[in-house]
Amino acid sequence: MAHWFHRNPLKATAPVSFNYYGVAGSPAANKICNDLRMTRARLLEMFTDVTCTPEIMKNATDAYFSLLQGFIVSLDGTTQENKMRFMQNFKWTDTLQGNSPSAQQDAVFELVSMAFNVAIWYTKFASRLEVHIPRLITPAEKGRDLEPRVLDTYLIQCQAEAQEVTIARAIELKHNATLIAALAFETAIFYQKADHTLNTLEPECSSKWRKYLQLKQHFYMAYAFCYHGQTLLASDKCGEAIRSLQEAEKCYSRAEALCKEYRQTKGPGTTAKPSEQLFFLKLGGLIKNTLEKCQRENGFIYFHKVPAEAPQLELKASYGLAEPIAFELPALSEQCTPEVYATFDLTKGAKNDKAKAKEEEVRPVKEPDLKPQKDTGCVVS
């Protein structure tokens, strides 16, 4: 089955009971613990539910985060840390590190880890979680999901992929070649930047991802040179148009080679098959046909010399660039009041072994195998 986008696996996590025997000293406190357990389990179910919509995901996320914030923000009117923040141990895997989990006894770690998974689900909204990272007591280890290089790469990739949709739409609506070339060029730069962000990460966990970023970079550079060639031809610069299309042909061939390298490279995540998509295949034919047209016209009409050097692309899109959408946490749950907060008694927690974190196995997330929609040649999702 052909897929267009590379996707690293969702993070996996151990179950959390929130059973604070003795610590929760009132019915209202016990209800918060029970609701935390249920809303967390519900949210985790949504990650693999094929019927889940963005609206359902938002409601599930808000339900859990509104309660979880009751263990993070100060509720007693002081500037001290919430006394419940370090009560529970949380385990999460990382998208590039296989099934080896990291653990922190910190509700902020749970917040940013769960938000990361929600961001992966939404894909283009990955910028939402960075503001909370500096609050972590334990810094992220190299190569972990909350480490700056990994976070930045996800963000840049999401912007690039969102922009791919704009390019496909521009082609479908037959916008002018200058705009399409500029959008493609800036998208290629996004992929190049994402690849460079990973260049100091260990190859065993980043090589496959980098191959994907590189093939997308060369693919969109091929698009940029192809449509730039059309613009040059329309301006009666046939020799320069031929050179631009020759460069498009070169970039396209490199993208084809990288597709093979990507499929053969071992690493985390699903293996996309962009070279089997009509959107990819149509570009090869477009480059070939446009180049042949330019060469014919140059032989009959223009007689221009073909430059030795490819044109320097300095293209800026006037509109159509994708921008991240800001994310805000939901309001604190009405259940989390100072009065209820005061009934949590941490001095009683140590007296009961059941309050201690139970060692739970972290099992990989079994993601649904979604069937691609009809391939029109321009729809890339």
Task: Briefly say what this structure is.
The protein contains nine helices and two strands, in the order ααββααααααα. With 381 residues, it is mostly helical. The protein folds into two domains: 8-125 and 327-346, alix/aip1 like domains (Serine Threonine Protein Phosphatase 5, Tetratricopeptide repeat, Alpha Horseshoe), CATH 1.25.40.280; 150-301, alix/aip1 like domains (Serine Threonine Protein Phosphatase 5, Tetratricopeptide repeat, Alpha Horseshoe).
Mean pLDDT rating = 87
Sum up the overall morphology in one term.
Answer: elongated
Number of helices: 9
- Give the number of DSSP strands: 2
N to C succession of SSEs: HHEEHHHHHHH
The assigned CATH architecture of the largest domain is Alpha Horseshoe
Please give the share of residues in helix. 40-55%
Protein name: BRO1 domain-containing protein BROX
Family: Belongs to the BROX family.
Organism: Salarias fasciatus (Jewelled blenny)
